[in-house]
Amino acid sequence: MKPVLALAALLALAACAVPAPAPQPSTALDAQTRAISSAELFGPPRPFAPERSNAQIAQDILELGFRLESGRALPRFSRFEGPIALRLTGQIPPLAAQETDRLVARLRSEAGLEVRRVADGPAQIIVEFVPRATMRRLVPEAACFVLPNVTSWAAFRAAPRARTLDWVDVVQRERVLVIAPSDTTVQEMRDCLHEEVAQALGPLNDLYRIGETVWNDDNFQTALTGFDMLVLRVWYHPSLRPGMSRDEVATRLPAILAQLNPRGARSRLPLDPVPTPRIWTDSIEGALSAPSQRQSFALAQNAVNIALREDWQDERLAFSLFLAARFAPSSQGEQALDALLTAGAIYGSRPGGAVPRAHIDLHLSAQALASGQMEIVLRLTESAMPAARRSENGALLSSLMLMRAEALAGLGNMVEAEALRRDALPYAIFGFGSRKAAEARRAEVAALNP
């Protein structure tokens, strides 16, 4: 389930990985004014290959696949058997079919799954688009979500606590419903399709300690990664079957991964410490949803303290530091900068760290721009833009481009700066929802330039 993240002040220029919300449009068409699809914008997919060791990926799959986000254990392995049809319904946004077809093509070619989109008739996965306000009246904290054994929003709304909706009881998946917002940006719609369809097919949990996956509520990764596609290939390997226990799956994973990911056998990185204490997750989620910056900062600091006490040197410590910097009071600007630098160094040393590091570099660029350090802005944005483009994050890429344009203007290169602002516009519309929202982001970035 993709959460709705609150954004704050200067450090929210990139958001937590979800774009800062533009004024809510009244229709899906308004949200996608002048937008183009991700295929037109980014070209052929170029996902980063998985970098984790096979031993680590085996641990990841067990933790992703045998537990829900709530912490409840799943006793049995579950998946679909046979070909899978996917159908769109509800208030379908203008670019939903194109984004879905691109996703399906990737699932077929990269994960080897027998998935196809159908226009009508029976389907194993139904994606229903519902207005955001309607969705939030029933599930306030979710941007999108996935449910078993139900085929429509109306059926779910009629019995939202039905026993049949409990994933714990699902062994062989027959019908799964994905609920996504109909009136949002192309990027958020695409993000929901990727994460929720992937969860409809495979693991249901999210883990903050894995940086190279969409199954992470930090939301730095917005489109399915090479790691995600490998996990789905493993999930549908013929040596696994619905109903297996965790131990039965665990005994088969080494051979499956050796076959599917031989490069992962060469890595000798130590395994991540698990599990994550619930108190740390509660602190992170509290920081993201607290009603005041002061409360968010206190909870983020608590998460930092827990991460240090646990002696983590992974994404959990980095994300704790990132949030502590994001919510730090203005009187602690130097400490916030140190936290960002440390978080960036951690992400840079981790498998798949290029994309999270790009988000950190955007925040560092904002601070450098505000203090007139234009050369630093150019260096940081040059480093971060390739990862933003490759991960197909229009909000992040356009923000980096606009930062770079301001730095160029500050150094007197007005022609190149204006060209870069024009180039950033389609990415900003894709990420932020409309030309008006894109222009608002441009104004926010320009306001940083002294």
Descriptive account of the structure:
The protein has two domains: 44-266, Collagenase (Catalytic Domain) (3-Layer(aba) Sandwich), CATH 3.40.390; 278-448, Serine Threonine Protein Phosphatase 5, Tetratricopeptide repeat (Alpha Horseshoe), CATH 1.25.40. The chain has helices at 28-31, 38-42, 54-65, 96-110, 132-138, 153-158, 186-201, 226-235, 246-260, 278-289, 293-309, 315-326, 333-349, 354-370, 374-390, 394-410, 414-432, 435-448, and strands at residues 2-3, 84-90, 115-118, 125-130, 142-148, 176-181. It is built from 18 helices and six strands. It is of the alpha/beta class.
List keywords for this structure.
alpha/beta, disordered N terminus, Serine Threonine Protein Phosphatase 5, Tetratricopeptide repeat, 450 residues, Collagenase (Catalytic Domain)
Low-confidence spans? 2-26
End-to-end distance, in Å? Answer: 40 Å
Order of helices and strands: EHHHEHEEHEHEHHHHHHHHHHHH
| CATH domain class name of the largest domain | Alpha Beta
In total, how many beta strands? 6
Number of domains: 2
Indicate the overall shape: globular
Q: Give the radius of gyration.
A: 21 Å
